[in-house]
UniProtKB/TrEMBL annotation, chain A:
It comes from the Bacteria. One of its GO terms (biological process) is chemotaxis. InterPro entries: CheC-like_sf (IPR028976), T2SS_E_N_sf (IPR037257). This is Chemotaxis phosphatase CheX-like protein. Keywords: Chemotaxis, Coiled coil. It comes from Salsuginibacillus halophilus. Signal peptide: none annotated.
Automatic annotation (TrEMBL), chain B:
The modification 4-aspartylphosphate is found at residue 57. It comes from Salsuginibacillus halophilus. Pfam families: Response_reg. The keyword Phosphoprotein applies. This is Two-component system chemotaxis response regulator CheY.
Length: 294, 131
């Protein structure tokens, strides 16, 4: 996830062009090694074991390695060895930029230092950021706006990042956005109980369709009934996991059925915050509000 | 009773979840699968077909899953209903079991889990004839 933020920074600062960034990210994507693949490669787990952990991740908000240890597939020592073996994504981005002579090694080092200073990151925080510590990334890179319960909003967006990475696309970047204009497609869902939160996922038709196809793992072309059900279910699954996490913290919440809308304007107030989720194939918006969106 | 004879009712407002469930149930040998897209329709289909097993979502329009469960149990106190929900909090599980559900699955369900549950239910159905 750091690569998405850092790559955007390099682009904005004029160090690289959008084409160079795209090519570097593509090269990085092709060389990213998932923990499950490393586990198979090392002979620590079978493909069925890995699939079992992936299935479990769809029900519980836990990291692959923790679940693999919990289920007895690997020991803590094996996990540590696997993590050491996993290439750091930011190194892959840097490596591809240097290999392609877009940046010299020194320029790359300098711009990393500059990035750290501009975002007021300590050495420890920078290490955590590079390792993809989502809580830290959300804390440093995203404003939660005027939402009264900032902790709740932070937990919501951090979990959303993890769920998008798990179920849709690992290469993403979340940042604040202006109030959304009318999107082609919008899914809304109300969460209520001890807290009230109105949630929405908005996207143009092409991005909506791609999100649907990736989440459903189905051949989907266009905003069909299945596409609408898939994106609706993605928001529903995410909100469901959120209510489980909140229940574990002592806050009981309920959900209303999700609704899918076409060309629907949302009622934004001071109590809503909008986030852009940038994906390689397009962007969608997530809206969080303490007041009704419709 | 074998798998191909079992009547299974799948209740979820999401067309994707119904498609996935039906596909998995067919893979494990079910031949009599009925779908319902909201709570009210779930109760109506339940009364029509008297299924051996029901997979019931909680968050649905028209009538939520727990209300539909109450209606099903009232219609047939021996109804075998498994709640399937993305919101698997302890409170939800307890509510579902208190209301008469026989089990609870957190979404997304996988084929192995469905097969295990169906095997268990069909075994019970053989020991105690379906009413």
């Amino acid at each position: 996830m750091f690569s998405q933020y850092f790559g955007q920074y390099l682009l904005q600062q004029g160090y690289i062009t959008s084409t160079q960034l795209r090519e570097a990210m593509e090269m990085k994507k092709n060389t990213h090694v998932r923990l499950g693949v490393i586990a198979i490669d090392r002979g620590d787990m079978t493909a069925l074991d890995v699939e079992d952990v992936h299935q479990e991740q769809m029900r519980r908000d836990k990291k692959f390695g923790s679940l693999a240890v919990e289920k007895g597939y690997i020991t803590n020592d094996a996990l540590e060895a696997m993590l050491n073996a996993q290439k750091q994504p930011h190194l892959l981005l840097g490596q591809s930029l240097v290999d392609d002579h877009v940046l010299t090694l020194q320029e790359y080092t300098d711009v990393l230092d500059q990035y750290k200073q501009e975002h007021a990151l300590t050495d420890e925080e920078f290490d955590a950021f590079q390792r993809g510590d989502i809580d830290l990334i959300i804390e440093k890179m995203v404003s939660l706006g005027a939402l009264k319960d900032q902790g709740l909003a932070h937990d919501y967006i951090a979990l959303l990042s993890r769920n998008f990475i798990r179920f849709v696309e690992p290469n993403l970047r979340i940042e604040n956005a202006e109030v959304a204009s009318i999107a082609d497609w919008t899914v809304t869902q109300k969460i209520h109980g001890e807290e009230t939160l109105y949630t929405a996922l908005c996207a143009d038709e092409a991005t909506f369709t791609q999100i649907a196809a990736k989440y459903a793992e189905e051949d989907i072309h266009g905003p069909t009934e299945l596409a609408q059900a898939a994106v609706g279910e993605l928001l529903n699954l995410h909100n469901g996991l959120f209510t489980v996490n909140m229940s574990n913290k002592g806050t009981e919440l309920e959900m209303e059925p999700q609704l899918v809308h076409h060309n629907q304007a949302l009622a934004h107030t001071g109590a809503s915050t909008v986030f852009h989720v940038h994906l390689p194939f397009g962007s969608c918006q997530i809206v969080l509000s303490e007041e009704p969106l419709l | 009773m074998n798998m191909s004879e079992a009547k299974v009712l799948v209740c979820d407002d999401s067309a994707l979840i119904r498609k996935k469930f039906t596909g998995m149930l067919e893979n494990i040998g079910c031949a009599h699968i009925t779908e319902a897209a909201n709570g009210q329709e779930s109760v109506e289909r339940f009364q029509e077909i008297n299924p051996h097993l029901v997979f019931l979502d909680i968050v649905m329009p028209e009538k939520d899953g727990l209300e539909a469960l109450a209606d099903m149990v009232e219609h047939n106190p021996k109804a075998r209903v498994i709640i399937v929900s993305s919101a698997g909090t302890q409170t939800h599980v307890k509510q579902a079991l208190d209301a008469g559900a026989v089990d609870f699955i957190q979404k997304p369900a996988d084929e192995a889990t469905l097969k295990k549950m169906l095997d268990k239910e069909l075994q019970k159905a053989s020991e105690s004839p379906h009413v």
